[in-house]
Design goal:
28% of the residues lie in helices and 35% in strands. The protein is α/β, with parallel strands linked by helices. The protein folds into three domains: 4-88 and 175-182, Periplasmic binding protein-like II (D-Maltodextrin-Binding Protein, domain 2), CATH 3.40.190; 92-165, D-Maltodextrin-Binding Protein, domain 2; 192-277, 2-Layer Sandwich (Alpha-Beta Plaits), CATH 3.30.70.260. The strands form two sheets. Strands 1, 2, 3, 4, 5, 11, 12, 13, 14 and 15 form a ten-stranded mixed beta sheet that branches. A hairpin with a 7-residue loop joins strand 13 (220-228) and strand 14. The longest helix has 12 residues, at 14-25. It is globular, with a radius of gyration of 20 Å. The two termini are 30 Å apart.
């Protein structure tokens, strides 16, 4: 049966490129790609079993964590990360008009933030307007001479617009990590283990004790992030990525989890998976 893979649509988004790459890495045979309107819709499609898999951004090198993805992983503990890729992001300014008359710039909030310095220097009077996706932004500027969108250069060919400037992201090395989500944990090779927890008590040294366990077991943290629990003020969820070696220390990681759980009010294991860097054509 062909796999249905949800992603943040419509066509032409970086999420669509990530969905294609991750589906190939997962050996999905002729998958059916399902574009969704908004990140929450992507998450719900896998959470409520409307799709077999989903591809979502989880972290950007400039703007940090994609909090909607982190919150969803905590909310739906039966979803697992199966694979991850780090995709380079190079934004273009796309329009039907000319740079000198642009007064509004549309894009996904992450893209607007990633190009904020360029916009302040080159279009200081333009109003930034957030959209659900970069592709939606490009579609919304068609036929307008005073509007421009931030998105992938591939959208220029799809929508028949023109490039006003490229690249416009503030950091040349801008990249985003996308993850492939499934209801089944990954059983193949891994180099990252991801999990999150909230502590039983909010006392001095409680978090340090948990982090010391990680250090004592010899794991290197490649990410640590905190998010409010949304249940009570001052309660936080700690998200952690560890570098692991499937062959050598997976059993040690299982022992670490056993040591951490008694310290935690809640503990959610997002799974072990392989993350790699990819280059776009």
């Amino acid at each position: 049966m062909r796999k249905q893979v949800a992603y943040l649509g419509p066509r032409g988004t970086y999420a669509e490129k990530a969905a294609n790459i991750l589906s190939k890495l997962a050996n999905f045979q002729t998958p059916i790609f399902v574009p969704c309107n908004g990140l929450h819709s992507v998450i719900k499609s896998i959470a409520y079993n409307n799709c077999d898999a989903a591809v979502v951004p989880i972290e950007n090198s400039v703007e940090g964590a994609v909090t909607a993805t982190l919150d969803a992983l905590w909310k739906f503990p039966d979803i697992f990360i199966n694979k991850a890729i780090v995709l380079p992001i190079k934004h273009a300014l796309i329009s039907d008009g000319e740079l000198s008359i642009i007064s509004e710039v549309l894009s996904h909030p992450q893209a607007l933030a990633q190009c904020s310095e360029w916009l302040s220097e080159n279009l200081p009077n333009a109003i930034p307007l957030p959209t659900n996706s970069t592709s939606e932004a490009v579609n919304m500027v068609k036929g307008s001479k005073f509007r421009a969108a931030i998105g992938s250069k591939s959208l220029i060919q799809i929508e028949g617009l023109k490039e006003l400037a490229f690249p416009i992201n503030d950091v040349p090395g801008n990249c985003t990590r996308f993850v492939l989500l499934s209801k089944k944990p990954n059983s193949n090779s891994s180099n990252i283990a991801s999990f999150a927890f909230s502590l039983i008590s909010n006392k001095p040294g409680a978090l340090l004790k948990a982090l010391n366990y990680i250090a004592d077991f010899g794991f290197n943290m490649s990410k640590i992030e905190s998010r409010p629990s949304k249940r009570e003020f001052g309660e936080y969820i700690i998200y952690i990525d560890l570098e692991i070696d499937q062959q050598n220390n997976i059993e040690i990681f299982l022992e670490l989890k056993n040591q951490l759980r008694p310290l935690c009010k809640n503990f959610v294991d997002f799974g072990n998976y392989f993350s790699e860097n990819v280059e776009l054509d």
